[in-house]
Amino acid sequence: MAEAADFQGTSPSPARRWLRRTGALLAGAPLLAGLCQLTTAAPAQAADDSGSVSVAVDTLSPSAPTDGDTLTVSGTVTNNGKQAVTAAHVGLQVGPELNTRSSIDTVTENKDSLQGATGSEVGGKYVAKFAKLTPGVAEPFSISVPADELDLGDAGVYQFAVSLSGKTSAQPWDRTLGIQRTFLPWQSDEVDTKTKTTFLWPLLSTVHMTAETGSNAQQTPVFLNDDLAEEISAGGRLDQMLSLGENLDVTWVIDPDLLASVDAMTRSYRIQGEGDTTIAGTHQALAKQWLARLQKAVADKEVVALPFADPDLASLAHNGTSVTGSLSHLDEATDVAATTVRTVLHVTPSTDFAWPVNGAVDPSIVKVATSAGADKVITRSDSLQETAGLSYTPSAARPIGGGTTAVVADARLSTAFQGDLTRASSATLAVQRFLAQSLALDLQTDNQRSIVVAPQRMPTASQADAMAEAITALQGGNWSQTQKLTAAAAAKPDPEATTKVPSASAYPSSLRKQELPKSAFQQIASTQSKLDNFKVILSDQSRVVTPFGRAVNREMSTSWRGRATEASGFRSDVEAYLDELISQVSLIDKSETKLSGRSATIPVTVQNNLVQGVEHLRLRLTSLSPNRLEIGGSSYYEQPVEVSGGHSQTVKFTTTANANGKASVVAQLYTEDGQPYGDDVRFDVKVTEFTATVMLVIGGGVLLLVLAGFRMYTQRKRAAARAAEQNGPDDEATEAVDGPENPGGPEDRLEEESGTGTEEGAPEQPSDPTADTATENADPSGTGERVDR
After folding, report:
1. Mean pLDDT computed over 743-771
2. Which DSSP symbol is given to 741?
3. Rounded to 5 degrees, what are φ and ψ at 514?
4. Fewer CB under 10 Å: which end of the chain, C or N?
5. Contact by Cβ (8 Å): 363, 501
6. pLDDT score recorded for residue 248
7. Separation between Cα atoms, residue 231 and residue 252, nearest integer Å
8. What's 311's DSSP letter?
9. Is 407 exposed, middle or buried (0-12, 13-18, 19+ CB in 10 A)?
10. Mean pLDDT of all residues belonging to the chain
11. pLDDT of 309-341, one tens digit each?
C-alpha cells in the first residue's frame, strides 16, 4: 500500500522505506514459520515411509471394469500412530499406465510406500470422509465411482491407489498418511487376438493311507489319521477346491492316490489310534458324496492324471537313480494312475504329462520324467528362462529334444496366489495383480499365443478362493479365452523361444534341500527286496503286493517336501509292518534233543500265522558236525513245505549217528530260488549210540547164550558117557571116528537153536541197524526232548 501511494518516477522517503521494510518483515514472519515447519516435517514424513495409517482394500468390483461399469472399492483404514487423525478422507487415485510386466512388479514391491507417483485424485463426491481416526481402531469405507469418471485412456493396465489424507496435532496440515497401490486392468472392447489361457486346477493332498490292511476278506484299510475327512468336509480345503472348480473352465490335475483314498473311505475303514490300536472310521457318507460331486464336475472336462501318489521327480533324478529299482516304482505309479482314475471317476485321463516341483527342471529331471512314458514336462518360465531377448512372452510349448515337449507355465501368473491370502485385502491384491499381468501379456503383441498357469500343488482354501475369483474375471474379460492343456502342449511353438534345458547347477538350492535323500531310496529298495522275497511264498500275492506296492509309491510322494521327519517315520512304519508279516511264517524254537541209537527222526515245526496259506518253501536241516551226525545220509537235507493259513506243519528228518557226543543242527526256511526266509533255528542233538540200558540188555543176552551153550555141552557130555558105558570100547571108538560126519551133531544143533541161519525170516543180528522212531508223533520237541528209537 505504501508502494502504491508513491508517485511514479519519484523515490520513496527514508521514513517510508523504513516502514515498508518493517512491514515486509512482519508480513513474512508467518511465512518463515511455515517454511520452518515444512523443513522439519519433510524428514519426519520421509522417515515414516510406510505411513502411520494402513489402508486395506478388501474388495474391488468389478476387477476389470469396462465402459458403463461402476467401480466399487471398499476396505478399512487403521490409525497405527499414537495421535488421532482429524479431517481425514479416503480418496481414489488413477496413476499412469504401466506398459511392461516388470513395471507391474515394481509397483507390487512398493504397494504401500508413500514415495512415488500415484496420479491425481478423482475427488469430488467420490471420497469417504472421517472426522476423526482414533489410534488402533479400524474404520470401514466404501466408494463407488462410475468408470467414466476415472478418465481412463487406451486399453492397458493402470496403477490404482487408495489413499488416506488427514492431519495430526503434531502436524496440523493435510497430508497423505497411508496408501495402498493396486492395478486396474482396462480393456473395454474385445481384442482381435485373444490370448489362449490354460489354468491347471490341482486336486492333490498329502499321504493318508498306511500299508496296513485288515485280515478280513475285504482287507479293511488303515489310515494315518482322519485329516482327509476334514479336507473333504464342508469348508475344508478339498471341498473348496471341488466347489469352486466345478464352476470353472479349467484342466483338472489329479493325484490318483487321493481318489483311491477317498474311495477307500466309502467302505469300512479304520484309523490309527494310540499305540497299536485302531478305531473305526465314520465318514463313509461324506466320502461318497464328495466323489459323486467330483464325478459330475469332471464329466465333460479335461483330466490329467499324475503318477500314483505324485512321486517327487527331482528327488528321484538327483538321489534315487543310483539305487537299483527306484525307477521301476515310477513305472508302476504311472501304470496304475489311469486305471485308478477310470475306476473311480469313470473318465479316461491323460497320463503323458510330468510335473516336477515348482516346474524346476534340469537334464536329469527331464530324463526321469520321461522314463515312465510321459512326453510332456510341465516346467515354469523362471526355470526355462528366455535367453533370446524377446520383447514378449512366447507360447508355452517348446520342443526340447528326444520327442519331448516342455510346457512352460508363466511364472508371474503361476505364483500370483502364493502366501497368506486369508485376509480379504491380500486376496484382492493377488487377483488384481494376476489380471494386470495377464492383460499386459496380451498387449505385448498381436501374435496368437498359448499361455499356461500352473499354481502351487496344494492351494489353501483362501488361495483357492482368490484363484477362482481371478479365473472368473479372466474368463469374463475381453482379452483371454480358455484352452485345454493338451491343446496348449500341441500348439505351434515360437521359433524364437528358448528350448535349452538349464544345467543341474542352475537348479534352485532351496528346492534341493527339501528333496528325499539317497538313504530314503535305499530304505525303499530294502523294503521292496523283502516284499519280493515274501510274495513268492504266498498263495494269494495280491493281498500283500497291492497295498505294499502303493505304500512304496507313497514313500516317494512330493507331499513329503518340508516334512522330512514325517517321511522317515512313514517309511520305517511300512518296513516294520512288512517285517511283522514276514515273521508270521516261522520255525518254532527247539531245545536240546537227545538221540539214542544209530538212527532216529528229528521233527521241526513250521508255524503260519497269516490268514492265507504259504507254499513254495523248503525246510533245510543242516548238521554242523556231519562226522558225528548225518541228516538224510549227508550233512543236510531239505523238504518242501506248504502250510495253510493259521496252521502249523511238522516236518521230520531221518538222522544217522556215527559217534557219541553233541552235534549242533541248524533249521532254515528257503524260498524255491534259494533265498533264506526268516530266522534260522539252532539246537543241539546229544548222540548216545549205546546207552547203559542197551548194554545191559545185550550183556544179559550174551550171558543167556553162554549159559545155554554150557548146559547143552554138559548134557551132551553126559549122554556120550552113558553111550560109551552101554556100547563098550569098540562102539565108542567107531563113534569117535564117525563124529564129524554126523549131521545131527551137537554143533549143528547149537547153530540151529542159536538162530544163526540165513533163511528168510531169520532174526536180525545184533550188528544190524535199529528201526527209526515211529512217525506218528508229529509234536515239536519240548525242553530236553528225547527222540527214542
Report:
1. 38
2. G
3. -95, 0
4. N
5. yes
6. 97
7. 18
8. B
9. buried
10. 86
11. 999 999 999 999 999 999 999 999 999 999 999
The three cell numbers of residue 466 are: 482368490
DSSP state of 317: I
For residue 534, give the nearest of 574, 605, 595, 584 by alpha carbon: 584
The DSSP code for 612 is S
- Is the Cα torsion angle 89, 94, 96, 97 positive or negative in sign? positive
C-alpha cell at 219: 482287507
Q: Phi, psi (5° rounding) for residue 368?
A: -70, -40
Helix (H) or strand (E) holding 705: helix 692-738
Q: Diameter of the chain by CA atoms?
A: 214
pTM of the predicted model as reported, rounded to 2 decimal places: 0.80
What per-residue string of b and e applies to 180-199 under the rule 16 or more CB within 10 Å gives b? Answer: bbbbbbbbeeebeebbbbbb
Q: What distance in Å separates the CA atoms of residue 449 and residue 396, rounded to the nearest whole number?
A: 8
Going by C-alpha positions, the residue among 74, 83, 82, 197 that lies closest to residue 139 is 74
Return the C-alpha cell found at 406. 516342455
* CA atoms of 460 and 149, how far apart (whole Å): 37
First vs last C-alpha separation in the chain: 147
Block residue for cell numbers 466345478: 246
- Helix, strand, or coil (residue 634): strand
What is the enclosing helix (H) or strand (E) of 470? Answer: helix 461-475
- Per-residue buried b or exposed e for 319-329, using 16+ beta carbons within 10 Å of the residue's own CB: bbbebeebbeb
The count of residues in the chain is 789
Count of Cβ atoms closer than 10 Å to residue 357 Cβ: 19
What grid cell was written down for 56?
A: 486395506
The answer, yes or no, to whether the previous bond of 62 is cis (omega within 30 of 0) is yes
Residue of 535, 529, 573 whose CA lies nearest to 551: 573
Main-chain dihedrals φ then ψ at residue 326, nearest 5 degrees: -65, -45
With a cut of 90, say whether residue 726 has pLDDT above it.
no
With b for 16 or more beta-carbon neighbours within 10 A and e for fewer, the 222-236 pattern comes to: bbbebebbebbeeeb
DSSP output for 392-456: SPPPSEEEEETTEEEEEE-HHHHTTT-S---SHHHHHHHHHHHHHHHHHHHTT-SS--EEEE---
**What's the rounded mean pLDDT across residues 380-392?**
92
Question: How is residue 4 annotated by DSSP?
Answer: H
Tell me, letter by letter, the H, E, C secondary structure of 21-82.
HHHHHHHHHHHHHHHHHHHHHHHHHHHCCCCCEEEEEEEEECCCCCCCCEEEEEEEEEECCC
Across 730-736, average pLDDT: 44
**693: helix, strand or coil:** helix
Q: Which residues pair with 85 in a beta bridge?
A: 133
Distance from C-alpha of 396 to C-alpha of 400, rounded to nearest angstrom: 12
Instruction: Tell me the three state secondary structure of residue 681.
Output: strand
List, as one string, the DSSP characters of 539-569: SSTHHHHHHHHHHHHHHTBGGGTT-HHHHHH
